Amino acid sequence: MEKIRLGISSCLMGENVRYDGGHSHDRFLTDTLGQYVDYVPVCPEVGCGLPVPREAMHLEGDPSSPRLMTIHTRHDITERMLNWSEEKVVELEKDGLCGFIFKSKSPSSGMERVKVYDQNGVPAKKGVGMFARIFMEHYPLLPVEDEGRLNDPVLRDNFIERIFVFQRWRDLLKKKESRGRLTDFHTRHKLLILSHSPAHYRTMGRLVAKAKEFPVNELYRQYQDILMEALRLKATPKKHSNVLMHMMGYFKQQLAPEEKLELLELIEKYRTGFLPLIVPITMINHYVGKYEQPYLKEQVYLNPHPIELQLRNHV
Ligand code: SF4
């Protein structure tokens, strides 16, 4: 697999582009995730021609279409930022991004809950950074997160899983469209989809079963939309436990009673928060090898991202 290309707010890379001349370096993003990712840094404020250091700014007015204003000298940066952002998102198309990591809280780069001030100077955390909004409107399917939310291990696992799926999906799109290739992609991702949403899993199963009824490009389009919608839903311990039990069913004939009991206990301890997901997954991976279960061996769910990232090691 080629390295995944991700957009990122430049200050998270350690670049001194913040209004105060500093940065917001995030070591996990650069040193750990960075081993698997090629970042495309974007600083909208520097990109649209503002200097470093510069006067701090914030959003004002209607949270759905706020103005970007410097705080003391009251310069209105809105049009400048909007024009630059609209050009920038088109320019980024050539980079083949699989997602974007935004700097939280920024009036330019924050993806949610950014402060917007009303006419009395009272802030409400209802805004979206000006560049982030235009980016998300231009790329509605791309996985996006901010560095603050990525401190939550569940959200981190979810986001990184999605960017790896997106990369595989992009690889599929590079090949000639074919129902067979799509079915193969779906087969390998079935249990991963199930861990996010049993309802989407069923819908996608029906779509693939009726693949011949659609023009192939329409089939791809529909599949992609449902896939990305499914993966936006959080995979919870309850949903994971359901998938683990489902996988256990494939070994009904082979597992000795004490092996079954042991696996059931691990799943239950995971479900109730006493063990990390990696423990039952490791056991199942062991049985997949031992009993040569070909369907499970192909399941992305068992190895959705590099184990070195340790994304399934939390309780
Ligand atoms: S938050 Fe965005 S605009 Fe602000 S310094 Fe970082 S990249 Fe630049």
What's the end-to-end separation, in Å? 29 Å
Spatial order of strands in the largest sheet? 2-1-5-8
- Helix/sheet category: alpha/beta
- Report the oligomer: single chain
Largest sheet: 4 strands, parallel
How is the secondary structure organized here?
Layout: E1 4-9, H1 27-32, E2 37-42, H2 44-47, E3 57-60, E4 67-70, H3 78-91, E5 100-102, E6 114-117, E7 123-127, H4 130-138, E8 144-146, H5 153-174, H6 179-196, H7 198-209, H8 216-232, H9 237-248, H10 257-271, H11 278-290, H12 294-297
Parallel strand pairs: 1-2, 1-5, 3-6, 5-8
Antiparallel strand pairs: 3-4, 6-7
Report what the structure shows.
This protein has 315 residues and is of the alpha/beta class. Helix content is 46%, strand content 11%. The strands form two sheets. It has a four-stranded parallel β-sheet with strand order 2-1-5-8. The chain has a four-stranded mixed β-sheet with strand order 4-3-6-7, with no helix packed on it. α6 (179-196) runs antiparallel to α7 (198-209) and α10 packs antiparallel against α11. The protein is elongated and about 75 Å long. The relative contact order is 0.10. The mean pLDDT is 97. Iron/sulfur cluster binds at residues 9-11, 17-18, 43-45, 103, 106, 108-109.
Could you write a compact summary of the structure shown?
The protein is an alpha/beta fold and 315 residues long. It has twelve helices and eight strands.
